[in-house]
Amino acid sequence: MSVFATLIGLLFVFSQTAKSELRVDKTIIKSGKFMAREHLVIDLQNGVEWMRCSVGQVWNGSGCEGEALKLSQEDVSKAIVIANDQLGPGWRLPTRVELEGLVCKKCAPVKIELDSFPDTLAEPYWTGEVNGFAPRHIWTVNFMTGHTYGRFFPTQEVLFRLVRDR
């Protein structure tokens, strides 16, 4: 898929997500850590707000549907501009610590609370941090293993989920 087609697809995905804000707000608290509200999850410990679905998927009221997108860091930057235009300011890639905070070591087969983050894939997800030990690489968190890796090149295509400060 071309970058242009992917970004046009993101326009649709983000506009559909924004429309879900018009529904009656239902709050779900499964653990003391997260509070899920429609298409958003509030991380009560870190004071940030997560998109409930991976970018490319759409919240349908009970889960995430559609195909999660894998993009390079350059294309992720373009997607973030679109998200901020359509969903309001502040959306960004998470820090390494923020994304590691989503890991649920006791969860299986995907190392994340699927009640809060349904349909998350058991694969690596981008952070917005460069690996200081190997500056040509970006940190990722793998939700299959729960481990953090600093070995991905920015040109590689990886899944991602956006976050913003509350």
Overview of the molecule:
The protein has 166 residues and is of the alpha+beta class. It has one domain (3-165). Helices cover 22% and strands 23% of the residues. The chain contains three helices and ten strands. The chain has helices at 3-19, 73-87, 96-100; strands spanning 27-28, 34-37, 40-43, 48-51, 58-59, 64-65, 124-130, 138-142, 148-152, 163-165. Strands 1-2-3-4-10 form a five-stranded antiparallel sheet, with no helix packed on it. Strands 7-8-9 form a three-stranded antiparallel sheet. A two-stranded antiparallel ribbon has the order 5-6. Helix 1 (3-19) packs parallel to helix 2. It is globular. It starts with a helix and ends with a strand. The model is unreliable at 19-27 (pLDDT under 50).
Brief write-up:
The protein is α+β, with helices and mostly antiparallel strands. It contains three helices and ten strands, in the order αββββββααββββ.
**Helix amount:** 10-25%
Which spans have pLDDT < 50 for at least 5 consecutive residues?
Answer: 19-27
Work out the radius of gyration. Answer: 15 Å
Apparent shape? globular
Q: Report the structural category.
A: alpha+beta
What summary fits the major beta sheet?
Answer: 5 strands, antiparallel
Compressed to H and E, one letter per element, the order equals: HEEEEEEHHEEEE
Q: What fraction strand?
A: 15-25%
Annotation, overall tally of beta strands:
10
Count up the domains: 1
Spatial sequence of strands, sheet with the most strands: 1-2-3-4-10
For the record, give the distance between the C-alpha atoms at the N and C termini, rounded to a whole number. 34 Å
